[in-house]
User: Which sequence fits this backbone?
């Protein structure tokens, strides 16, 4: 069930009546407002704006969703490819005028290299688990041109835990691993794993996978923007 894609298409085609509801293993239920997924550059958080300004060369927008980042880059003349595993998301991107759209799981996308890999809105979450980062980074490196970069934002969600709770910062029970389901118009999609990673762990995992990691900027609430690049 492509819950996200159905919701995005409804909004794009003028059928907006409710938002996506997310349920997490942290015992939280939240709304994901659809208009926010269609925001323009001026409405984006500072970290996203910075990331878009740091994009160079040919860009792959991984987990593009409604395509707001791709659309901005395309309008400023950047060659960008929007990729998402959600068929509805890619149909939405095409309807919004994004020229290069790919409906595919990122692990199945091969044989093309880019100057910038863009993973915004906690795009590193696609790895699912901390233990999966080696395979995730290995595949991302296969998509990078020499001198290329990976731009990503994430959040250290340690603030969501009580001070007396036992927190592990290493696998296999890393505190940033969260399970989610999405519900839209009474339809609930499959459970999926999502990874939030703290800065120290990202730096360590990047180094373990022959990547340099630079923390570019800090956000207002435990979030940050990082740039990864191939070690020489």
Assistant:
């Amino acid at each position: 069930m492509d819950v996200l894609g159905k919701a995005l298409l409804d909004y794009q085609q003028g059928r907006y009546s409710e938002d996506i509801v997310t349920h997490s293993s942290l015992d939280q239920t939240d709304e994901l407002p659809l208009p926010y997924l269609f925001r323009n550059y001026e409405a984006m958080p500072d970290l996203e704006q910075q990331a878009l300004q740091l994009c160079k060369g040919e860009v792959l927008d991984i987990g593009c969703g409604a395509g707001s980042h791709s659309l901005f880059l395309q309008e400023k003349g950047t060659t960008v490819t929007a990729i998402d595993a959600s068929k509805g998301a890619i149909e939405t991107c095409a309807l919004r005028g994004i020229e290069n759209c790919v409906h595919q799981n990122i692990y199945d996308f091969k044989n093309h290299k880019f100057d910038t890999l863009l993973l915004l809105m906690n795009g590193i979450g696609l790895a699912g688990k901390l233990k999966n980062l080696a395979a995730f980074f290995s595949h991302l490196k296969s998509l990078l041109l020499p001198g290329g970069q990976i731009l990503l934002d994430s959040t250290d969600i340690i603030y969501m835990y009580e001070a007396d709770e036992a927190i592990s910062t290493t696998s296999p029970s890393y505190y940033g691993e969260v399970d989610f389901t999405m519900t839209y118009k009474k339809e609930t999609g499959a459970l999926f794993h999502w990874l939030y990673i703290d800065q120290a762990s990202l730096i360590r995992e990047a180094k373990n996978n022959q990547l340099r990691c630079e923390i570019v900027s800090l956000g207002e609430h435990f979030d940050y923007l990082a740039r990864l690049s191939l070690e020489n």
User: Anything to note?
Assistant: The mean pLDDT is 95. The two ends are 43 Å apart (CA to CA).
